[in-house]
Design a protein that fits this description.
about 20% strand; alpha/beta; five-stranded mixed beta sheet; globular; 5 strands
């Protein structure tokens, strides 16, 4: 119900899809993969995210713009916005469904700097973010979502653009999700 009131009909995931993702989260078999893209010529950027299990059987996914003054935008911000989108979905699911506390979820991203800082945030509840740090506004949002959650997070970095060197179907599972 929480999704139906917030999204247009064509973007609303089915109740069954959400239930499958909640079941996977409850079984600690949920991978949340995100990616970002930035075109410095146009000043446009976007992010995408997908939630699925280790077999890729069920999924929720979404995408959106990366918001920022185009003169300040880099590829880092849309990567963080993809992570934030996953975090918002996770904490919304956690608040909407009982008995998810302590379940493990894997956050996967191909931006090494983003995974390092997010790993620091989820490793220490007292992690201090430098107010002068690049894109601190999004990092603070990620930290806020983490602090409101009782989930256990594992942050995984995967190399980017692996599909440039091999066919997508020959890539490891997480690399395939990063391409989708």
């Amino acid at each position: 119900r929480w999704v139906r009131s917030a999204l247009p009909c064509d973007l609303t995931p089915s109740f069954v899809s959400v239930q499958h993702i909640v079941t996977l989260l409850g079984a600690s078999d949920l991978y949340c993969v995100s990616d970002g893209s930035h075109d410095p010529r146009t000043g446009r950027a976007s992010h995408a995210w997908v939630m699925t299990n280790s077999a890729g059987l069920y999924r929720l996914q979404g995408a959106g713009p990366a918001d920022c003054d185009p003169t300040l935008l880099s590829s880092y911000r849309p990567e963080l916005q993809g992570i934030l989108a996953n975090m918002i979905m996770l904490t919304t699911l956690e608040q909407s469904y009982a008995a998810l506390s302590g379940c493990k979820v894997r956050l996967v991203c191909d931006n090494e700097a983003a995974t390092k800082i997010v790993r620091s945030i989820v490793t220490s509840r007292q992690y201090f973010l430098d107010p002068q740090q690049t894109d601190v506004d999004i990092l603070l949002e990620i930290q806020g979502e983490f602090l409101s959650s009782q989930l256990l997070f594992d942050v995984i970095w995967i190399p980017s653009h692996q599909d440039k060197h091999a066919a997508v179907d020959s890539l490891p599972f997480l690399a395939q999700l990063n391409v989708d």
